[in-house]
Design a protein that fits this description.
- The structure holds two protein chains of two kinds.
- Chain A is 24% helix and 28% strand.
- Chain A is an alpha+beta fold.
- Chain A has six domains: 2-37 and 158-188, Phenylalanyl-tRNA Synthetase, Chain B, domain 1 (2-Layer Sandwich); 46-154, Nucleic acid-binding proteins (OB fold (Dihydrolipoamide Acetyltransferase, E2P), Beta Barrel), CATH 2.40.50; 198-397, 3-Layer(bba) Sandwich (Phenylalanyl-tRNA Synthetase, Chain B, domain 3); 405-473, Phenylalanyl-tRNA Synthetase, Chain B, domain 1 (2-Layer Sandwich); 490-687, 2-Layer Sandwich (BirA Bifunctional Protein, domain 2); 703-790, Ferrodoxin-fold anticodon-binding domain (Alpha-Beta Plaits, 2-Layer Sandwich), CATH 3.30.70.380.
- In chain A, helix 9 (411-417) packs across helix 11 (458-469), helix 12 (490-503) runs antiparallel to helix 15 (609-622) and helix 12 (490-503) packs across helix 16 (678-687).
- Chain A is elongated.
- In chain B, a hairpin with a 2-residue loop joins strand 7 and strand 8 (270-273).
- The radius of gyration of chain B is 40 Å and the shape is elongated.
- Chain B folds into two domains: 3-89; 108-339, Bira Bifunctional Protein, Domain 2 (BirA Bifunctional Protein, domain 2).
- In chain B, the strands form two sheets. In chain B, strands 1, 4, 5, 6, 7, 8, 9 and 10 form an eight-stranded mixed β-sheet that branches. In chain B, strands 2-3 form a two-stranded antiparallel sheet.
- Classes of the chains: A alpha+beta, B alpha+beta.
- Chains A and B meet through helix 6, helix 9, helix 11, helix 12 and strand 31 of A and helix 5, strand 1, strand 2, strand 4 and helix 8 of B.
């Protein structure tokens, strides 16, 4: 919503400055979003002073002047006027300005070899008078105004307000003036009532059909005949331009003017293009109509249309049609001022994707009592500018609008806002906003004006009161520093820890979109449901991600193109497996790629699967999952390398903690990644809550025994270590693989695996015999269970 | 001089003449070894009379002490000399690169969420969360935003079904609804998280982060709201004084509603928060609308309170001088490295927010 101070003053009597008005508007919730200078062709012409006037070196009758144009700027101007002398105060036109008399646009030019920046003007050139002998000679009062625009009053600001959707009344200047008056910076002027001469009969029949969901409940109209639809007069044009609109003709400009002045949308029809009568009804599927935006619309059932006997003239409350539109040649018009239901109007406009100033207002709720005043104001203006004869006003109405009544307990004000506002002040504020108040015992009965469709209950009135009183009047009560509940719950603590745990291993945290490209996502989706976005922002962000890898890999590749070979990235966030709320899991997803640089002898070793495994196992350990509680399964999703990846499960294989491995080389080469499933991990920990055991260590001698077994090449090392660990929980303290060997001296389908077992008792010193016994047991069990053979 | 004395003096002389650690070690075992001088002298004691035994033993012990003293003195000197000699020969160019290490980074959004949580923790708020996919009811209806209301236009919503019943949450406010529906008042929560709107330009991204705040109890009024936000803003920007302005606004789920602006100025192309005559909008807030409380089965006669919503990314931009919102989600390695935080730099109440 745009306004100028000048226009505001039509409704508000105030002595406040523009800045004071701006502050007030902000303080009462009518936010001033933008302040824009309305460019006026004359604003460029500034008061200037000639500092020096010398003869032009190449021309006898020209002078070369040094001119002070303000703001510490001095320019050279060539001037032919005889009165151009030192210390003369005059008017300067800069390059780019247009001289009013001849519409010439000034440029920087050389006059007889000397560059002239702009021009000093005569009164006739500025259309001030016919005086063309010499340049303007301003009196000394102007000496303080050097640099400022000569045509001072022509320069105004346009304020752009951001009006919240609950305040349709402030989509008109008068509503804004009412709010400002209530806030105490002026007085709302009465609307002038003028008697209009109504000499014609309203001869066009209007009916509102009784349809289900009929949006229109009031249709007011009047007819004006024999007008001369001319260009609008300057004052009207100026206001239309201030609104950011283009002046078209008096009829159109007046309807727009009244809409912005009183928040009363109007529409003008060329009667000569209407066949017989007007019927307001619901549309039928298949009806077509060409709107004033020059687009053709196909209507469906139940859209509110204004029709004549030939068909659709306009979409009620949204947009008029080209068929009955007014033009400069139009002689006879019908003005419409109606009420359309907000919700139905909005639905129709959304279906057809039309935005208009009228729709914007009707969907927020227009004052149904403004039908008549709107017609009167518009008719008055049109007749005064275009002449013509006016008919009586015809109003068809199918519904009565009653003012809402609210029972209001004034104590709720203090209870809500915290400060005391006395009843007199409450009454005054509400009265000024147009509410009517009756005292009933200790309660008030409040009647809500029809222009405030947003006010339903007590709390809405509280907002009105504190808004006008000023939020700066509120107390600021310091918060109490008491904590009754821990800030983070068990799960959140793990989230927080996991994030920093992974980052501390050299990974950069990324935040990528929750959506991704369907095609890429499919590589990571497995058998999970695809979750499509109906209205994606672009076709390559059209599904919710099933995995964090697609976006992370995409980011990694972009960084590769930026020249970063070595990268470690991670993200912690949601992956989706369904479209119901809650169909999501939190994944900590890490990705690592190394640039192989053969020239660098100092380069560290190449990363491999065990680097990523180390990162994932260490992270799990930091999150409280001990390696001994886990087991590895080599079946992983297809986006991992089938032979170089694993899944870390709880020992009972019921809880999946993580996947790790090389990313499938078909997706990206030479990259490793892991995924930790946070919810799984946390619920496992909740189920098996561990308390730290008291420290208990054995001081008895411990012994290490080394074994080397020949086993089948495909037997996993974990199989052997788990067999040994399970032999004797008391004596076997640690099992560690220290070598794996395939090759010479060993069968092709076998491998040798060397294991160090630490044996220690908590109760006594073990004798040689005990050690031999347990060693033999280890050998026998492994040989039996793993088809192994001890290497001698 | 007895033989014993002679032998002893010989050994002493030998010790003193030792040239290196190897020699001294050998001499050591000649004297103190299993079959060395001292032990062999002691072995002679067995055949003597008790009185002589005592005499000889004392003599040997005396000699042993004397030799030991000299021996350890000389041995220490020789070892030190040799060590110094060796050290002189050892020289490594320590300006060669160290073994590789990598420092990870925490994204500024995560860091700011931790900072905010830390501040609100101090005044008793706890963290709640909700899903990214929401029902139309939780995201709009329960929050007093009815179907076909123009207020919905402010949220360009991503929908997951044609009936527009399932959507990506457009704000974190549905967490209010979830929290109130599953619990009993009082409520004192913050809810950070991802939010989504179908909007993409210089200052908007289709995904961004919000922080919701909710405090419902008996007699919580706008003064508490103002005090709470005042406290938060000052703590967050780590400055003592800040200009703040509460400006009436409209949100369907709060009434009265307000927006909060903070003062700032631009100096040398840098934004300075807290001073100056310009205003910057940073959050929306208000008293929770009674309709919302009713939708969440809260007795509005007994309970009332406030809610607020803050753009987390925006706060991060202001505090850490980041100009472009879109850069947050572009995962540019240089950007992450520059604006990211050390993972050990955990914002806490007792240590402070930033390093």
């Amino acid at each position: 919503m745009k306004l100028t101070k000048n226009w505001l003053q039509d409704h508000l009597q105030t002595k406040k400055s523009e800045n004071q008005i701006i502050d007030k508007l902000n303080n009462i919730g009518l936010e001033v979003e933008n302040i824009e200078k309305i460019k006026n062709e004359l604003s460029d012409f500034v008061v200037a002073k000639i500092l020096k006037a010398e003869k032009h070196p190449n021309a006898d009758r020209l002078k070369l002047c040094k001119v002070d144009i303000g703001n510490n700027r001095i320019v050279d101007v060539v001037c032919g006027a005889p009165n151009a002398i030192e210390n003369l105060l005059t008017i300067y036109a800069p390059p780019g300005s247009v001289i009013p008399k001849n519409q010439m646009k000034l440029q920087i030019t050389k006059i007889r070899g000397i560059t002239s920046h702009g021009m000093l003007c005569s009164e006739s050139e500025l259309n001030l008078s016919n005086e063309s002998n010499g340049i303007v000679n301003l009196n000394n009062q102007y000496s303080s105004r050097v640099g400022s625009s000569y045509f001072k009053n022509e320069n105004t600001n346009c304020l752009e307000l951001s009006i919240t959707p609950n305040r349709p009344d402030c989509l008109g200047i008068r509503g804004i003036a009412r709010d400002l008056a209530a806030s105490g910076i002026g007085k709302l002027k009465e609307l002038k009532s003028t008697k209009l001469k109504k000499t014609l009969k309203h001869h066009i029949k209007v009916t509102i059909d009784k349809n289900k969901k009929q949006a229109c409940s009031i249709f007011g109209s009047c007819i004006i005949k024999n007008i001369k639809n001319v260009e609008s007069p300057p004052w009207l044009k100026k206001r239309i331009i201030a609104l950011g609109l283009r002046p078209i003709s008096t009829v159109v400009d007046v309807t727009n003017y009244v809409m912005f002045d009183l928040n009363r949308p109007l529409h003008a029809y060329d009667i000569d293009k209407i066949k017989n009568k007007i019927t307001v009804r619901n549309s039928k599927k298949g009806e077509k109509f060409e709107a004033l935006d020059n687009k053709n619309y196909n209507l469906v059932d139940d859209m509110c249309v204004i029709t004549d006997d030939k068909g659709v003239l306009g979409l009620g409350g949204i947009i008029g049609g080209t068929r009955s539109g007014t033009e400069l040649e139009t002689k006879n018009i019908l003005l419409e001022s109606a009420y359309f239901d907000p919700e139905i109007t909005r639905k129709t406009a959304r279906k057809l994707n039309i935005n208009s100033d009228a729709k914007f207002r009707f969907e927020r709720g227009i004052d149904p009592d403004s039908i008549k005043i709107g017609l009167q104001e518009a008719a008055k203006l049109i007749v005064s500018i275009c002449g013509g004869q006016l008919s009586e006003i015809n109003i068809q109405q199918t519904k009565k609008f009653k003012k809402r009544k609210i029972k209001f307990d004034p104590n709720i004000v203090t209870k809500t806002v915290g400060i005391k506002i006395n009843n007199n002040e409450i009454i005054k504020i509400l009265n000024n906003l147009g509410f009517i108040i009756k005292k009933k015992n200790k309660l008030f009965e409040i009647m809500v004006p029809l222009w405030r469709p947003d006010v339903f209950g007590e709390i809405d009135l509280v907002e009105e009161i504190i808004r006008i009183k000023g939020l700066d009047k509120l107390d600021s009560i310091s918060p109490e520093k008491i904590r009754l509940k821990s800030t983070l719950n068990f799960y959140q603590r793990h989230f927080h820890l996991a994030q920093r745990s992974v980052a501390s291993k050299g990974y950069f945290e990324a935040i990528t979109w929750s959506f991704t490209d369907e095609k890429i996502n499919n590589k990571f989706r497995e058998n999970k449901e695809e979750v499509k976005i109906i209205n994606p922002i672009s076709s390559d962000l059209n599904v919710l991600r099933s995995s964090l890898f697609p976006n992370l890999i995409n980011s990694l590749e972009k960084n590769l193109n930026r020249g970063f070979g070595d990268q470690s990235l991670f993200e912690i966030g949601p992956a989706f497996f369904g479209k119901k709320p809650g169909d999501q899991v939190t994944i900590i997803c890490a990705l690592k790629k190394q640039q192989i640089n053969e020239d660098n002898n100092l380069q560290k070793e190449l990363i491999d699967i065990f680097d990523i495994k180390s990162d994932v196992v260490k992270t799990l350990t930091e999150l409280g999952i001990n390696k001994k509680e886990t087991t590895i399964i080599t079946k992983t999703p297809d986006y991992y390398h089938p032979g170089i990846s694993g899944a870390i499960f709880s020992k009972d294989k019921k809880t999946l903690f993580a996947y790790f491995g090389e990313i499938h080389p078909g997706i990206i080469s030479n990259a490793y990644g892991f995924e930790i499933f946070l919810e799984n991990l946390v619920s496992y920990k909740e189920k098996f809550k561990k308390e730290k055991k008291s420290l208990n260590f054995s001081d008895y001698q411990k012994s290490d025994r080394d074994f080397a077994f020949l086993i089948d090449k495909h037997t996993e090392a974990q199989v052997i270590t788990e067999i040994i660990e399970n032999i004797d929980n008391e004596l076997i303290k640690n099992v560690k693989i220290f070598d794996v060997y395939e090759g010479e001296n060993i069968d092709k389908d076998k491998k040798s695996i060397a294991i160090k077992v630490t044996i220690q008792s908590d109760l006594r010193t073990l004798k040689e015999k005990d050690l031999n016994d347990i060693s033999q047991k280890i050998i026998n069990t492994v040989e039996e269970k793993a088809q192994a053979k001890l290497r001698s | 001089m007895s033989d014993f004395e002679k032998l002893k003096n010989n050994f002493k002389q030998k010790i003193l003449e030792a040239k290196n650690s190897k020699e001294i070690t050998n001499i050591g075992s000649e004297i103190f070894g299993k079959k060395g001088f001292i032990n062999s002298e002691f072995s002679k004691i067995g055949s003597l009379s008790p009185e002589d035994k005592k005499k000889l033993a004392s003599k040997i012990n005396f000699a042993k002490k004397e030799l030991t003293d000299v021996f350890s003195q000389v041995s220490r000197n020789l070892h030190t000399e040799e060590l110094n000699e060796n050290i002189k020969k050892q020289k490594i160019d320590v300006t060669l690169p160290e073994k590789n290490f990598e420092i990870g980074k925490i994204h500024p959004v995560s860091q700011v969420i931790d900072e905010i949580s830390s501040i609100f923790s101090e005044i008793g708020f706890s963290v709640e969360e909700g899903p990214d996919v929401e029902s139309d009811f939780n995201n709009f209806t329960a929050l007093n935003t009815p179907e076909n209301h123009p207020a919905k236009d402010m949220h360009d919503t991503f929908y997951l079904d044609e009936d527009m019943k399932t959507l990506l949450r457009t704000h974190t406010s549905p967490v209010q609804v979830r929290t109130m529906l599953k619990g009993k008042p009082p409520f004192k929560i913050i809810a950070p998280g991802r939010t989504y709107r179908s909007d993409s330009d210089q200052t908007h991204t289709p995904m961004f982060h919000q922080l919701e705040g909710l405090h419902i109890d008996k007699n919580i009024n706008m003064g508490h709201l103002k005090g709470c936000l005042n406290y938060f803003i000052k703590e967050f920007f780590e400055i003592k004084k800040i200009r703040m302005r509460f400006r009436p606004s409209h949100f369907p789920f709060t009434e009265p509603s307000a927006e909060v602006d903070i003062g700032y100025k631009i100096e040398n192309n840098k934004i300075i928060i807290g001073e100056g005559d310009k205003w910057l909008e940073i959050l929306g807030c208000g008293m929770v609308h009674p309709n919302v409380l009713k939708n969440c089965k809260i007795d509005t006669k007994k309970f009332q309170g406030f809610a607020f919503g803050i753009g987390i990314d925006r706060l991060a931009m202001l505090k850490y001088g980041i100009n472009d919102l879109r850069s947050f989600f572009e995962t540019d390695y240089r950007w992450l490295n520059h604006y990211g935080f050390d993972p050990l730099d955990v914002p806490t109440n007792y240590r402070g927010l930033s390093k």
